[in-house]
Amino acid sequence: MGTFIVYIAFFACFLSAILYLLVSRGNTKVIGAARLMFHVSVVMTISSAAYLLYLIITHQFQFTYVWNYSSKDLPVNLLASTFYAGQEGSFHLWAFMMAVLGVFLMSFLKSRDQDDHQKDHNGQISKDTNFEPLVMFTFAFIQSFLLFILIIKSPYLYVWESFPKEVAIGFVPEDGRGLNPLLQNFWMTIHPPILFAGFSSLAIPFCFAIAALVKNQYNRWLKLALPWTLFAGMVLGVGIMLGGFWAYGVLGWGGYWGWDPVENSSFVPWIVIVAAIHSMIAEEKTGKFKKTSLLLCVIAFVLVLYSTFLTRSGILGDASVHSFVDPGQEVYLFLVVFLSLFGGGGIALILFRMKSLGSDSKQASNLLSRESAVFIGAITLCATALVIAVGTSWPILAKGTIDPAFYNKMNLPLAIMIAAINGISILLAWKHTDEKRFYKSLYLPLIITGVVTAVLVAFAVRDVLIAIFVAASVFALIINANIAIKIFIKNNLKAGPYIAHLGIMILFLGIIGSSQYSEEVNLSLPLNETKSALGYDMTYKGATPFGNKDDKDEKYHFNVVVEKDGKGFLLQPVMFYSEYSDGIMKNPDIANLGIKDVYLAPMSLESPKPFNDEDVYLFKKGEEKEVKGLTIKFIDFDRSKFSQESMKTGAENTIGAEFEVTQGGKTETVIAEQHMHDGQTNNIPVRLKDSDHFTFMLSKINVASDMTAELIVVDETAPSVTAPETLVLTASIKPFINLVWGGTIIMALGFFASLSGRVKRFRQSQSTVNGSKDIVHNGTNGTNGINGTNGHKNGHDNGHNKVHDKSHKQKSH
Hints:
Blueprint (H helix, E strand, L loop, with lengths): L1 H23 L6 H27 L6 H6 L6 H6 L5 H30 L15 H21 L6 H4 L28 H11 L1 H13 L5 H31 L9 H26 L3 H23 L16 H24 L17 H23 L1 H4 L6 H24 L7 H25 L4 H27 L5 H21 L2 E8 L3 E4 L2 E11 L8 E10 L2 E5 L2 E5 L4 E5 L1 E4 L3 E11 L9 E5 L3 E4 L2 E9 L5 H6 L3 E11 L2 E12 L2 E5 L1 E2 L6 E9 L5 E8 L10 E10 L1 H43 L5 H28 L1
Antiparallel strand pairs: 1-19, 2-3, 3-4, 4-5, 4-6, 6-7, 8-9, 9-19, 10-18, 11-12, 12-13, 13-14, 14-15, 16-17, 17-18
């Protein structure tokens, strides 16, 4: 049934795209059918998502996808998140988000085309201003590609279809493989959906740009596309930083950003769409930068497709911890076609329309103007995106990966420019700036910046470039904060851009503090033994199990008491063995102390040894030694249980060493053995027949060259001096990390305020249009002759009064 639903969704969407194309060619009669088919596709896409979720929640393990990523022991929220844990589900999540956004986009276009259209003498809608057909054609065409991927890589295959030679038809597994332990976290239920909502929303500015290029009409697309572009920048930015918070607080990577190729592949489109937002605002104010705005909207979505290709094709399998495995040749080739068609098509359209993309403004750009500064800032953002894109693509261009230091070194000068340009641009006016007024406005911000930077250099900052970065960020922060406060008091919605810039500058300062001045040390904490590090006393107090009894993997809190100046707190990093990954999973614990975090990331647990270093004795073949009142002689290696073939294959194998042990005149033969399997060695203890005081274990052996063996001899009557259980961890101090999270929240609020301001302006313009409709409607109520003229005059006056009243109310507000 799931496959059938996906087929309906695909064909309905593809048919909708064709019908919308016909509408754009002048056949307006089929617009109702185009809308209907798109709605059918939306309903079927959402139905397919609901059906897949139903299969997961009800444990229908006969489906390969359900079996591969879910299990009965998962809680409901994590069980639901397995929907997008694999290739098929993540594509389905993308298609689902596109379907939901498509409904709102169609409604938006329909209402705007009705409100803003121009009419000719016959009262017909002008094709030049109607954007719905071409925008929805492009959007439906993209959605058709995503739905087709769900056909060639279906989440509805049965296990006997996926493993025809291994599983009988009709077989239903009792349980699933389960979800990767790294993904078993609260953020798994939030981060991917928000990230895919951002990816999906970037398709909308792309669709508007394509429609404008095809129509060769560039006045109205900007007004329609800018709110969606702001929405895309806000959602994708939040999604990226949620991933950073997840990595920092749960995965134990020691930070929120590691320049991982898959992290970068979502970050690059966000940088480009932020550049596009600034270019579009400059175009709105001055009529310039049409080519730039269109190109950036196209490239941002193309980069989403490129990131999809990188993460889903398996190319980054050895370079990234995030990437999926090879999806198969069909999907690989289809992703190449997907990327080439929309990327190549969009750029080809821009090149085709290059001559007609000239600026409406004949006035030359003044270097000392806001639009010039904004343009330079957008170019700097694009340079940042290019640096990261090249580094991310390096596994394709050459073998190996780029070291994270490359990104830090290359992006630091660009980040300085971005911060400085941001501060300067806000002090400039559009089109032309009075030089004396501009220079005068610089005095106070520069003085405060100089004082703050000087204090920081005196106490902490030593690197010259970092000091300049701090100065540029503080400079922009002061300017944005000053203007944001003034505007917020008058009109909080217009303060949105300045709030967003303020958040980014705070984020910059948080990045400087948490990355450049973080302290880190590796510690070995024996049980109940206090050690000092980073200005704190740390004591490991043992491990305590936690979690549900039904969990497959038993988890442990490793309790560490951290103290300073008589005050202390408990941190509980987590480690457990995972059957799923056949390895140890680790989660950090963090103490947030306001201006810094104390961060403990566990590495390993060293169990107490049953012996100490003094119990180990080296014997050469034939050598005899006096050990703890015993006479021990190494006779030879015992190969009776050893298999050369098993050694090659890594199967279980055993080798021993024969010793003669003499005690009290009695001699006894002892064979100490080592058991080996998959590279792991286990020492098998052995005792004397006539005495249980001594235990013998074989340690290291050298059979090939000098024929030696290390024998462990433990006298159990002697006082124990063995090493206690020891927790090995990485302890670090992360100063000013809260500025990273706070700056992100403020930036998102700024985006939201800007978006709300755009929506409010649309509503105001709609009210004005409705007032104008009243003029026309009332003006035509008169009869022929004088009555008609008077009716028109009265209608005009009434309509004028309504508009005047609305305008007066708006100005007062």
